[in-house]
Amino acid sequence: MENKLQLTLTELSKGLLYPSESDYPFEYFEWDLPPDTILDENTVRKATKASQNTPVSVKTLDDFFKNVTEIKDWYGEEEKASVQQYIVLKQTIEKELSDPRVYRLGEVEIDAYITGKKADGKWAGLKTKVVET
Predict the structure, then answer these.
(1) pTM of the model
(2) Second label for 125, Cα 20 to 30 Å away, from 21, 97, 112, 118?
(3) SS3 call for 29
């Protein structure tokens, strides 16, 4: 069953591809964790069913969205519209999720989880893939 946050984040991220060596779309997720769960590397590995030796790094929303929320001099209308869409998406995540951050799992082909706590205490957000060689 879709919830309001899922509908909002799915709509705001529609058509956006996170730029890396390969560009991937965003997908909504929720983790079925006890409400008092504190996220750390091991909890994130368990929630994503990653192996215990999968490298995990944490980024702030500002770091993750830095390159996609700045308008460059040479941007055309399409790029500018994309930047605006990313800015609204980031602002919505900051408004709707408490303690938002980005967990990056793996090396080269990295699963990125933009997550935070919903008002009901569940961890949710958007995931994408980032390719860095």
Answers:
(1) 0.93
(2) 21
(3) strand
